[in-house]
Specification:
single chain, mainly beta, Immunoglobulin-like, 2 domains, elongated
Length: 288
């Protein structure tokens, strides 16, 4: 299909008003929804993708190309992601209805958390162009149908930190919800106000992926895959060039030079903040 903007007029005489019976499924659980302009009760917990099924009907046959879209909004009401099924046109939908099944792959960069789910029908870019039947019509033509909680393939938190003789030791706890592939290992980045800092990321560990190695081993991977959790400790050298700066520590999973898997808080999770005083003293401000 050519990527051109196809406008769907908002007048009922052209597109009709659509009524939608919806099911959102994830992880073996399902919420059955009947959309009539109002929200449904309940939250669907999802990881990786969302299975969306709908039955569209219209009192008057839709005469122009219109496409279903699902928008995710964060807690501040900002759009976090828009999904459009450009392979399913609503053109021709009438009183007899038409079924629609669709798997929406969540963006790799989408952080975990709660998101409002909004349904719309419009052009191929996901811009809503027509109202749906029932209830009050929102100003942006995106109808709230509920909420999802996005979780990752794993979660990671900083659980302990110490400093002695010029070396910062930082302990992380990983919790896995899927099998960690052999190619994936923990990765750490250390940032200050100027961005990623190579001067404080010389982590001296045994992994084959320097300088992000973290004491990862086959034993740690097996423990994580078999029990669902493991802890690792990374070391970083602190030198005079780090004095008088503050640093944020991020952790994720990496395969060679590419990030792999999705954490609860995105591909890289903030796990701690440290302050290095002008005299070289190191303070752990917080663990996250």
């Amino acid at each position: 299909m050519r990527m051109r903007k196809i406008l769907c007029p908002t007048v009922a005489a052209v597109c009709g008003l659509l009524t939608v019976a919806i099911a959102i499924t994830a992880g073996g659980s399902a919420e059955e929804l009947t959309h009539s302009g109002t929200a449904f009760d309940g939250t669907v917990q999802v990881r990786g993708s969302v299975n969306f099924a709908a039955r569209w009907t219209a009192a008057r046959t839709v005469e122009e190309d219109c496409y279903p879209a699902v928008t995710l909004k964060d807690g501040g009401g900002y759009i976090a992601a828009v999904f459009v099924d450009d392979a399913f046109s609503l053109k021709g939908v009438g009183a007899s209805g038409r079924s629609h099944a669709w798997v929406m792959r969540l963006p790799d960069v989408l952080p975990g958390g709660n998101y409002g789910v909004y349904l719309s029908a419009g052009d191929i870019t996901g811009t809503p162009q027509k109202p749906l039947a029932g209830g009050e019509t929102p100003s942006d033509l995106r109808y709230r149908i509920g909420e999802i909680t996005v979780i990752g393939d794993y979660d990671v938190h900083g659980v302990a930190a110490s400093y002695a003789s010029g070396t910062l030791s930082f302990t992380l706890r990983y919790t896995a919800r899927t099998q960690i592939p052999t190619a994936c290992s923990p990765v750490i980045e250390i940032h200050n106000a100027d961005g990623w800092q190579t001067d404080l990321s010389n982590l001296r560990m045994t992994s084959a992926i320097p300088p992000y190695s973290t004491g990862w081993s086959t034993a740690r991977r097996n423990e994580l895959n078999n029990t669902g959790t493991t802890q690792i400790t990374a070391n970083a050298s602190v030198s005079q060039r780090n004095y008088g700066k503050s640093y944020e520590i991020y952790a994720g999973m990496s395969a060679t030079d590419e990030l792999c898997l999705q954490g609860d808080r995105g591909r890289m999770s903030l796990v701690g903040v440290i302050d290095v005083a002008a005299n070289g003293a190191v303070t752990v401000r917080e663990l996250l």
